[in-house]
Design brief:
two-stranded parallel sheet; alpha/beta; Rossmann fold; 7-stranded parallel sheet
């Protein structure tokens, strides 16, 4: 199986690349490193079935040779990043989706869009089912991400209907684990960094808003189960266990082994009040549901953040390592002469367009 992973050097993308290699696939990772990081895939660079191309998918995408699947994860995903990169986020959802759908169509490959729970906006239905249309502010401070993903879903559906492209959509709920960017503004990296540094942990609003948190390896398993079907989706992927942001902050402080206070700051505009997936479809159609306990997954993530920050994680004794939660990929020996690869071709005029 030969798989293109767009956004493969990001948090989720790098874990997907790693798991695909473990499962025996050949992986072509594309990333422009706007928010992804080369370090996320540095352990894979010597693998003989891994190729890395620095490319912005809003430009025309060409990959030589056969392709069996195209995974589209190329987009800023944290509020801090997509607010800093609003046009880039919108173009990733529009032009990026079109170009990658064009590649999948040309190669007769399965296309899988990594959409988001943000298509539900600040939901009026709880928990959120795939049939719910959402409550999204199209001109609000989160609109560049929400609407980019909603458009990407519509375009993916149109390609399936018009061109009979084999497409699928997964809606990813809050996911955490090693390789998250410490500066991306999301709750877990922010809470962990503050707690490990001995700083007050800042909770938005009164902390009563809820989230449902899925460990990254569980999420990757769900994505790959969806990839290996012909289901069109959308299918929710996330952990149906719901907790308040205040409860999450308290748990992070406990697991970090610190005694820092929790303080409160103004809640951002359009911050969803509730978020919990109904995963009935994932259970029935994919045989999938999360397995990693939140405390165990957070302990692994905290240990990774502590190492990244070169700070002690004082309460980690006896907590599981990642290898105790999941099987880890082991890079294969370096292929002679392998370095960076020229995988991606642009049209002579550099314009975006569908692959032919």
């Amino acid at each position: 199986m030969r798989v293109v992973v767009a956004g493969g050097a990001g948090f989720l993308g790098s874990h997907l690349c790693e798991r695909l290699l473990t499962d025996g696939a050949e992986v072509i990772c594309l990333d422009n490193f706007a928010t992804g990081r080369p370090d996320n895939v540095s352990n894979l660079r010597t693998h003989p079935r891994f190729e890395l191309g620095c490319h912005d998918v809003t430009n025309f995408v060409h990959v030589a040779g056969p392709v069996d699947a195209v995974l589209h994860l190329a987009s800023p995903a944290s509020p801090l990043h997509y607010r800093d990169l609003p046009l880039e986020t919108l173009m990733a959802g529009a032009l990026g989706t079109r170009n990658l759908l064009g590649l999948a169509r040309a190669k007769k490959a399965r296309f899988l869009l990594a959409s988001t729970s943000e298509v539900y906006g600040d939901p009026l239905v709880h928990p959120q089912t795939e049939s719910y249309w959402g409550n999204v502010n199209p001109v609000g401070p989160r609109s560049m991400y929400d609407e980019a993903k909603r458009y990407a879903e519509a375009l993916t559906t149109a390609y399936r209907i018009t061109h009979e492209t084999n497409t699928g959509i997964v809606r990813i709920f809050n996911t955490y684990g090693p390789r998250m960017r410490i500066d991306d503004g999301r709750a877990i990296p922010a809470f962990v960094a503050q707690a490990l540094r001995g700083q007050p942990v800042t909770v938005a609003g009164d902390g009563s808003q809820t989230r449902s948190l899925c460990y990254v390896d569980d999420l990757v398993d769900g994505v790959l189960r969806m990839l290996r079907t012909d289901l069109p989706g959308p299918v929710n992927l996330g952990n149906p266990r719901e907790m308040t942001i205040l409860e999450l902050a308290q748990l992070v402080v406990e697991l970090c082994g610190t005694n820092v206070p929790i303080t409160f700051v103004p809640r951002p505009v359009d911050d969803p009040m509730v978020r919990r997936p109904d995963i009935t479809l994932a259970r029935s159609q994919l045989g999938w549901e999360p397995r990693v306990d939140l405390r165990d997954g957070l302990a692994v993530a905290i240990a990774w953040f502590a190492d990244a920050l070169n700070l002690p994680a004082q309460a980690m004794a006896g907590r599981p390592r990642r290898s105790q939660l999941v099987d880890e990929a082991i890079p294969a020996p370096r292929r002679p002469g392998q370095d960076t690869v020229g995988l991606v071709g642009l049209r002579a005029d550099g314009a975006a367009g569908s692959t032919t």
